[in-house]
Amino acid sequence: MSDITGNTIANDVATNNCPRCGAAFTCGMEAGLPACWCAALPPVEGIPEVVGIGCYCPNCLKMLLRAAGAQPAGF
Questions:
Q1: Which Pfam families match (predicted)?
Q2: Would you tell me how many other CB atoms lie within 10 Å of the CB of residue 59?
Q3: Which of 11, 27, 40, 70, by CA, is between 20 and 30 Å from 59?
Q4: Rounded distance, CA 61 to CA 75, Å?
Q5: How many angstroms separate the CA atoms of 74 and 69, rounded?
Q6: Alpha-carbon distance 60 to 41, whole Å?
Q7: Is the distance from CB of 28 to CB of 11 less than 8 angstroms?
Q8: Extended beta strands in 1-75, E state
């Protein structure tokens, strides 16, 4: 299995569930990768819904970034 950046993930088990939509997804850091897919996105400071809640799935994080005016590259 690979993450969205092409890094190989050690197993096929999702490491997280999105607190916003409930989707299962893999955090690269929790899967033992040197980086996570989210590291390629703009920082999330200033997005009130994100602060202190945890990790969002790729779809929800992209949506929140776009709503805040950020343009995630490659998404």
A1: Cys_rich_CWC
A2: 14
A3: 11
A4: 11
A5: 15
A6: 12
A7: no
A8: 16-17, 24-25
Residue type, 44: V
**Gap between the Cα atoms of 49 and 74, Å rounded:** 23
Identity of residue 16 = N
**In whole angstroms, what is the distance from residue 38 CA to residue 56 CA?**
9
The average pLDDT across 5-21 equals 67
Phi then psi dihedrals of residue 17, to 5 deg: -125, 135
Quick: pLDDT tens for 15-71.
Answer: 888 888 889 999 888 888 888 888 888 876 655 555 556 788 999 888 888 887 776
Every domain of the chain and the residues it spans: 1-75
